[in-house]
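Repro:
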Amino acid sequence: MMQPLALVMYERLLPGTQLVNRLQDLHYRVKAVTDASLLLTCAQQDKPMLVLTDVMSTRQDVCAAIHQLRNTPDTQHLPIISFAPDNEDSRRDSARAAGALLAVGDTALLAHLPELLERALQID
């Protein structure tokens, strides 16, 4: 059976690489993207099961990339989990407003990743 693909967009190395490693431990294939402007193209070409985005970027508007994913017909179905430092509530709120299904702090993301994945992948 083929492992599901998770598309992970991050700029901060510590939570990004930890997330990639945890996803691989959970038997996901992972494609890392460091440029938010490539997120839509990668999602269209690679057809991931879900997208995880770090909204703490000093160079890019990650929320605009989330909005683009959510408003493009062939990617609008993708569950998006966004994350930011625990003290960045406004960034997580912006990610939700842009279309992220879940927006959590770094600590919660790593501590509860299996549960967050399960919730994001639920079919209503």
